[in-house]
Specification:
With 230 residues, the protein is an alpha/beta fold. It is built from seven helices and ten strands. It has a six-stranded mixed beta sheet with strand order 7-6-5-8-9-10, sandwiched between helices. The protein has a two-stranded antiparallel sheet with strand order 1-4. Strands 2-3 form a two-stranded antiparallel sheet. α1 crosses α6. The protein is globular.
Length: 230
């Protein structure tokens, strides 16, 4: 049973987490790392017509934003995964974030290539990964979850114990949530789609009707019906 003090502490943590998500969302919108363009959709590589485009690599070019992201990663990993012995970045977007967070935590770091090199030692995992190492994977973006699951599987095959994944942003798509759960992968994001869209509506970046359409897109990204809501 939770004591009154524990209940208050959990409430404080939830408030702090909500405030962090809003701050990161504000940062992503301010530096245009996330574009919301429901009236003129982007076309993803999959052919999906999307009202949103995310390029979190831009966070590296803004020192204040970069500092908040990396310090948030370090605090999250320290609190959630105190036994973590190594950070592994996803190639290529997660590499820099893993390196900076590992520096702040004084931990070793490496990264996983999308495929084995075709020359030299033909490595897919770069960095010294010891069998049994307790690893946290650092990713920039979670959508359907496929790419980060591949990274986790490569690490597991190499003998690592993957404690979880941390990421800057998550779309919260049902397909991604289901795939991560099926693979036994836990992801924690600094910011999510719902928070960002909510903030965009509150601050006038988008109209309220666009907010509903964006959330419909999140639920059914392959269904263009969200466009009819604008």
């Amino acid at each position: 049973m939770l004591t009154e003090n524990n209940g208050e502490k959990n409430c404080e943590l939830q408030i702090a987490n909500c405030e962090l998500k809003k701050k990161i969302a504000d940062d992503l919108l301010a530096i245009r790392a996330v574009f919301l363009r429901p009236e003129e959709p982007f076309t993803w590589a999959s052919g999906i017509q999307s009202p949103v485009y995310c390029d979190n690599r831009l966070t590296l070019s803004f020192p204040g934003v970069r500092r908040r992201v990396e310090e948030a990663f370090a605090s999250l990993i320290k609190a959630k995964y105190p036994d973590c012995g190594m950070l592994m970045g996803t190639s290529t977007a997660g590499i820099a974030h893993a390196a900076i967070a590992a520096f702040l935590l004084d931990l070793p770091m490496g990264y996983v290539r999308s495929g084995a090199k075709g020359h030299g030692r033909a490595n897919q995992i770069e960095g010294k990964l010891e069998p049994g190492a307790k690893v946290v994977v650092v990713e920039d973006l979670i959508s359907t979850g496929g790419s980060v699951i591949e990274v986790v599987e490569v690490l597991r095959a190499a003998g690592a114990e993957v404690l979880g994944v941390v990421s800057i942003f998550s779309y919260g798509m049902q397909k991604g949530l289901e795939r991560l759960a099926a693979a036994g992968v836990e992801n924690t994001s600094l910011c999510d789609f719902d928070t960002l869209v909510g903030l965009a509506a509150e601050t006038g970046v988008i109209e309220e009707k666009a907010r509903a359409a964006l959330l419909r897109f999140r639920d059914k990204p392959t269904d263009p019906g969200w466009m009819e809501m604008l």
